[in-house]
Amino acid sequence: xxxxxxxxxxxxxxxxxxxxxxxxxxxxxxxxxxxxxxxxxxxxxxxxxxxxxxxxxxxxxxxxxxxxxxxxxxxxxxxxxxxxxxxxxxxxxxxxxxxxxxxxxxxxxxxxxxxxxxxxxxxxxxxxxxxxxxxxxxxxxxxxxxxxxxxxxxxxxxxxxxxxxxxxxxxxxxxxxxxxxxxxxxxxxxxxxxxxxxxxxxxxxxxxxxxxxxxxxxxxxxxxxxxxxxxxxxxxxxxxxxxxxxxxxxxxxxxxxxxxxxxxxxxxxxxxx
Length: 273
Prior knowledge:
Blueprint: E1 13-14, E2 18-20, E3 26-28, E4 35-36, H1 50-61, H2 66-79, E5 83-87, H3 93-104, E6 110-115, H4 118-130, E7 137-140, E8 153-159, H5 165-171, E9 172-183, H6 189-195, E10 212-227, H7 228-236, H8 246-249, E11 257-271
Parallel strand pairs: 4-7, 5-6, 5-8, 6-7, 8-9
Antiparallel strand pairs: 1-2, 2-3, 9-11, 10-11
């Protein structure tokens, strides 16, 4: 699954220092390996900054979400996709592990990760090389304009990230898999209680996105105990951090460790026939 040019829609050919289409549109690779394909009018979208990217790396590397990762790997191993696009890929913790597992089982899986944050893709590109996936493509792009050709993708990973059903349908093969993970109502409930006077539950999502059918739905519940040095990293990688006062965030400084619920919905969706 080669990336496509955001200007003309032609196939982009990877070179050591750039991506180039037949019409001569050229996009430089950053030193870490990612390419920025956001159009100029979209560049105000920055996504997670370097601090948040580091927080995600610290927390995920500690293994708190390992049970979720194991389940995602099991689902994709059963699917054996040749082309995976991780949309809203973050720093690549999930998709690099999935790709490594698939290749370790004899699949020739190719990985492309897309995020709107250049900062976080630096971490993803480095992680991929460390895990023996130097040929992965990492692109700064919008979920509304994905750099992939029509019907070119076997599996879309959409984990805690925005969903754009029509664009997903455009790039996904007719028998492809959209694998979504969403936070359930009580996800991180005790963490919210520690920060907010009136914590609120997440809104439930139980239906497949428009144009898809729900082939399988399962929930995964667990508790994790997070020490003080990882609490702020956990909070920083959630969307709550953008909506919370510094005064409330500072409450986490008074906690030595916190046991909290983690609760995920795992949705396997297929394009409607």
